[in-house]
From TrEMBL:
Name of the protein in question: Methionine aminopeptidase
Record-level GO cellular component terms: cytosol
Listed SUPFAM superfamilies: Creatinase/aminopeptidase
Positions contributing to substrate binding: 83, 182
Keyword Protease: yes
Gene3D superfamilies: Creatinase/methionine aminopeptidase superfamily
Catalytic activity: Release of N-terminal amino acids, preferentially methionine, from peptides and arylamides
Gene: map
One GO-annotated biological process of the protein: proteolysis
Annotated organism of origin: Phycicoccus duodecadis
Alphabetical UniProt keywords: Aminopeptidase, Hydrolase, Metal-binding, Protease
Lineage: Bacteria, Bacillati, Actinomycetota, Actinomycetes, Micrococcales
Similarity comment: Belongs to the peptidase M24A family. Methionine aminopeptidase type 1 subfamily.
């Protein structure tokens, strides 16, 4: 089912999106060499609960995972790209970390992901991976809006990724959000323009391009959740929740401007 939100629900989604964005930026600042992935999960839990919000992950048990997930955030390191299950692992400088967070606040969900290199000095290859997903995300957002087709968004994302030299996996992609985390429509990271569902005001979409350095094939860890590059190559993942409005598209999970 595709859920169309009322203006009041979209306004609540703005508050959820701001919370998700601010938590991710807080965690990014704390994720330094020596930080354990369990620390990141604990900090996420504290901030979610302090805000009166609800985790979308703790009880999440889809058919593709070995559920329930049981944690508050996905922590994917280096060759892990999606659904990284937090575990006892301390970060080191140079690790490429992706954090994916979805919460519900006042009945509306927002979902976002960021990738960055611990220590702040990415290699040219890591910088290119991250930048490609960020450009693809921006292209997908630019292609969205009332009257646009879902295929327009998928095409914009996919052509940006392939132009950067990466293969596109279409097993996992973006999705609708609203009162729950994963809803129709599925937003593939590759598609044909002018095809598919026509976007309407009140629709919330989580757009999430992701790539692996030298493959489009995933393998699953023994934990039943963490998805990795089949070749062991590095990976990156970027995601925003956007709202289709009467006159365009609005990013709900953009971080707040830094305080001066």
């Amino acid at each position: 089912m595709i859920e169309i939100l009322s203006p009041a629900e979209v306004e609540r989604g703005r508050r959820t999106g701001a919370l998700v964005a601010d938590i991710l930026q807080d965690l990014r600042g704390r994720a330094v060499a020596g930080t354990d992935l369990f620390d990141i999960d604990r900090w996420a839990r504290e901030m979610i609960l302090d805000a009166g919000a609800v985790s979308c992950y703790v009880d999440y048990a889809p058919s593709f995972g070995r559920g329930p997930f049981g944690h508050y955030i996905c922590t994917s390191v280096n060759d892990a790209v999606l659904h990284g299950l937090p575990h006892a692992r301390r970060l080191v400088d140079g690790d490429l970390l992706s954090l994916d967070l979805a919460v519900s606040l006042h009945g509306v969900v927002a979902d976002s992901a960021i990738s960055f290199v611990v220590g702040g000095s990415p290699s040219p290859q890591d910088a290119a991976l991250i930048a490609a997903t960020e450009r693809a995300l921006a292209a997908g957002i630019a292609a969205a809006g009332p009257g646009a087709y879902l295929g327009d968004v998928s095409h914009a994302i996919g052509t940006t990724l392939t132009a950067a030299g990466y293969r596109v996996n279409t097993q996992f992609g973006g999705h609708g959000v609203g009162s729950t985390m994963h809803q129709d429509p599925h937003v593939a990271n590759s598609g044909r323009p002018g095809r598919g569902y026509r976007l309407r005001p009140g629709l919330l979409l989580a757009l999430e391009p992701w790539v692996m350095a030298d493959t489009d094939r995933l393998v699953t860890d023994d934990d039943g959740w963490t998805l990795r590059s089949a070749t062991g190559g590095r990976t990156a993942h970027s995601e925003h929740t956007v709202a289709i409005t009467e006159d365009g598209v609005e990013v709900l999970t953009r971080p707040s401007p830094p305080r001066r």
